[in-house]
Write a structure and sequence with these properties.
Strand content: 15-25%
InterPro entries: ComA-like_MBL, Competence_DNA_uptake, Metallo-B-lactamas, RibonucZ/Hydroxyglut_hydro
Oligomer: single chain
Organism: Dorea amylophila
Radius of gyration: 21 Å
Protein name: ComEC/Rec2 family competence protein
Mean pLDDT: 85
Number of helices: 13
Strand order of the largest sheet: 1-16-15-2-3-4-5-6-7
Low-confidence stretches: 1-15, 21-44, 314-336
Largest sheet: 9 strands, mixed
CATH topology of the largest domain: Metallo-beta-lactamase, Chain A
CATH architecture of the largest domain: 4-Layer Sandwich
Structural class: alpha/beta
Number of strands: 20
Bound molecules: zinc ion
Number of domains: 3
Amino acid sequence: MIQVLKKTWRQRLLSLLLPILLVFAMAGVEMKVPVQAAGNDAGAQTGEMKVHFLDVGQGLSILVQSEGKTMIYDGGDKKTSRFVVAYLKEQGVTEIDYLISSHYDADHMAGLIGCLNVFDVKNVISSNYVHTSKLYKSFVKAVKADGLKMKHPAVGKTYEFGSGSFEILAPAVIEKNGSNNNSVAIKLTNGGNSFVFTGDAEHESEERMCSSGVDLSCDVLVPGHHGSATATSWDFLQKTVPEYAVISCGADNKYGHPDKDTMDKLKSMEIQVYRTDKQGTITVTSNGTDLSWSASPCNDYTPGDASDQGTQVQQTEAQSVQGQVGQQTASQAAEGGKVWVSATGSKYHKTNHCGSMNPDTAKQETEAEAKAQGLEPCKKCY
Ligand SMILES: [Zn+2]
Ligand SMILES: [Zn+2]
């Protein structure tokens, strides 16, 4: 097991915020202290949460276990249905507290039918649209046979889960002819650690998540739609700012997933990459502060289709005005040999608003000065 003990920038931010929160608390101001802050401050009070990214070939299936509670988010395709059931049994699963079907495409839903048949399922969360496939009918039948009703929670709804919780991020709207964009997306939180799963949600749904006002920042993102270029927009990456991305796709899949565009973006932000097509099933355990992975990231940024040239130049041009302004600031800073340094932290940046840094307290100095102070270039902007 590999221990990652590095404090994330989010944790550093929280440690900065905590004294401020305490002042408010002492002044008798009633305010909600985030779960993360309490967890971090109190040390190892948060329980463990283990997330398994199952190798289901071209599909998606994620098992989450925490303090005796079980969640399965998608179950992969028909071909791997038996593997998923066997894997869950191996992990000692008998009951599933939350069975979440992101959407009704076979590569996500088929395996859930097996789970409904074998395990004692308590709650089914799914998307509020109807699919025309036979498989969808089988799914509906299996849910009914268990005496359950599908729940279609609204964006923002939060559920307690084991030592943490999960919040519904999407879908905000149901597209008539969309299946992927109707995906139920969630943010799973355990103390100071968090994960975002978006099923096959594409740019349109990502945009809605970005404008929902929900905090999308996370440690681990599963890039939508198996790393397809139709998902993982720049805006979404800038809102989620993950440290790690886990791509679930099949080796040599016919769609060429993951796309070069997605991999180029992840590479340019130096997001560490895990891939089920290269590494098989991957697990990570959160204790509320640190993540322990079953393997090192492969950081293989090659696309599924070797001939994929990507469209990064065009995409860069198409970025939002805000993004362009940010880039200009960045290049100006780089040209003048000046860099930005935040009030705390061990990195220097191209901009004064990288990640969660506070632009008001960041100061500019030369790169040489920053290096002399022992600061290193930020991986996200350099
Ligand atoms: Zn799909
Ligand atoms: Zn899919």
